[in-house]
Specification:
mainly alpha, single chain, 6 helices
């Protein structure tokens, strides 16, 4: 009986290790997709990494410049939603205990991302219900509320 329990424990640890490795691989692949967005769209970096605000298209009179500002805002919003989807997946995986290694690092990364990006804050604030609302266990409550005040 003891041998069966020991074998089951080892099997469980093996399955858990495989699951965590698979989950980590998926999360890192998603992160690489996001990194690729910033490599291909270098002009978006200041709005996500340096707290820079997007230009106010409504205040621009020149039609070409206004259109450029609107397109930039559209690309930034799409990127923000892609990042929010990634964060929601990260949060879910950490909540299921399928992904525990580096959890502290990922949580710090999410908090820092909100602190560095008014665009990301605004996207989450405008669509909080799609990402768990405002409760203490939501993306907003856990990672964004403190950093996004005033954004």
């Amino acid at each position: 009986m003891a041998a069966t329990l020991i074998a089951a424990a080892y099997q469980y640890l093996g399955i858990r290790s495989t699951l965590e490795s698979s989950t980590a691989s998926s999360l890192y692949a998603q992160q690489q997709e996001i990194d690729r967005i910033f490599v291909d769209n270098v002009d978006l970096q200041p709005y996500f990494w340096h707290r820079q605000e997007l230009p106010d298209a409504a205040a621009i009179r020149d039609p070409a410049a206004k259109q450029e500002a609107q397109q930039l805002a559209g690309r930034a919003e799409a990127t923000a939603h892609r990042i929010l989807d990634h964060f929601a997946h990260l949060k879910y995986q950490m909540g299921t205990q399928a992904f525990t290694s580096e959890k502290t690092d990922w949580e710090a990364y999410m908090r820092r991302s909100f602190a560095d990006s008014p665009v990301l804050c605004r996207a989450l604030r405008d669509d909080r219900e799609a990402f768990g609302g405002t409760g203490p266990d939501s993306l907003w409550g856990r990672y964004a509320a403190e950093s996004c005040r005033g954004s």
